[in-house]
Amino acid sequence: MDICPCGHAAVAYNLQIDEYxxxxxxxxxxxxxxxKFLCTDDTTQVSSATSNQIxxxxxxxxxxxxxxxxxxxxxxxxxxxxxxxxxxxxxxGVRLICSDGRHxxxxxxxxxxxxxxxxxxxxxxxxxxxxxxLRTQVDDFSRDWIINMYPLQVLSIVHETCSLLGxxxxxxHIMLRKILTCWLISGVGAxxxxxxxxxxxxxxxxxxKCVKVPLFGxxxxxxxxxxxxxxxxxxxxLFCLMELIYRNWQKLMFLKRVTGNWTLSxxxxxxxxxxxxxxxxxxxxxxxxFVMSGYQVAEMSPELQEIKEQVDSNATFCKVWVTIFxxxxxxxxxxxxxxxxxxxxxxxxxxxxxxxxxxxxxxxTPAIVDFRxxxxxxxxxxxxxxxxxxxxxx
Length: 394
Prior knowledge:
Structural class: alpha+beta
Strand content: 15-25%
Shape: elongated
Number of helices: 7
Order of helices and strands: EEEEEEEEEEEHHEEHHHHHEEE
Number of strands: 16
Largest sheet: 5 strands, antiparallel
Oligomer: single chain
CATH topology of the largest domain: Rhopdopsin 7-helix transmembrane proteins
Number of domains: 2
Helix content: 25-40%
């Protein structure tokens, strides 16, 4: 958020207005591309993202009448300006709300006679407060990267869990390759975010910022890329996960029939838990993916702006919710994977458990041993703990 110095408030504002380009093919009317406030010290200016190619409104600074001060603003949108499918419209005017209840307008001169437009709810300060700054919200590369990484992490963990149904072996290089592959594919899937966010140089004392724009200036291209991302990371993930579980489900059921009881094997219980977690995650992830993709496509629509304003009114609650959800995405797969892993528990607890008394021989629980003929030899298996090694005698 950009605000005036301590003890000062906004006293006037000006708009950076793009000219009217007409309604022909390829003509994109951006209207207002920047806004700046002049503070009461008459020197400090705070602004949103601006452009060096678009002039400021020739009308100059717009301020409230004498002995009044700005307490809020109201934004106006033009939804569709032409038959051009690439022109979805944008901000057409900003109305300053003064402390005496008056409204001072500053908007594109070619919009005369077309007021009022589609207007958003006015943002007004509480009683006794004044307007001191503004905030520009930009979605960046990291959000898409993390969202793409989550399903790949779960898929990789389920694959690793399925490997527990076979012979166990330690190979850190395989796990490292899986982790690096998840990061790489997630980054590739989010790389389009680098091209729909541009850096804008500030003018004079204004601050340089980033601003969200259509991908390569083409709205249809942005929608297509987002649709492909949703299909790969939300729908494609679901098919891969279900195929992996289906291939290993029969093997899990066979081992369950051999043991006769889930409680006899911590390993089987852990695998079953991971399968259930993956299925529940898939049921949540697909609807979430479509909602998220639809949000990004319609992000700049007036209706969505109104929702954002309602969200901003509960900013603390929303920030807490977003933080919890981000932590869940980042850490839940790893936590779930390591739950119940006795080898990990022993490895990390060993330095703290060296003084633990060992059970006496008399109090030790006798093992139940099963002798079975196997290819001309005898297999001795401990049925109390299937995690222990099997010993074959020939």
